[in-house]
Amino acid sequence: xxxxxxxxxxxxxxxxxxxxxxxxxxxxxxxxxxxxxxxxxxxxxxxxxxxxxxxxxxxxxxxxxxxxxxxxxxxxxxxxxxxxxxxxxx
Length: 90
Description:
This protein has one domain (about 5-90): Methane Monooxygenase Hydroxylase, Chain G, domain 1 (Up-down Bundle). The protein has three helices and no strands.
């Protein structure tokens, strides 16, 4: 337990930030999972819409500082590559 007022505040803030980060990461993972499901289903228009939403969520997660911007860039690149490969194969 914190012994100083400022340390107690930092502890409360850290807990709020941790929960906010978990929420953002969870949204990101859900968007990626939905994209994977759309790719598995193989419907082109649905895949493009899921990709657009996933890119938006990943970029937003990075802008909030939950993940590093290069991590977000790498994820977006890999997702786009996966969708393009599926589209080329179809």
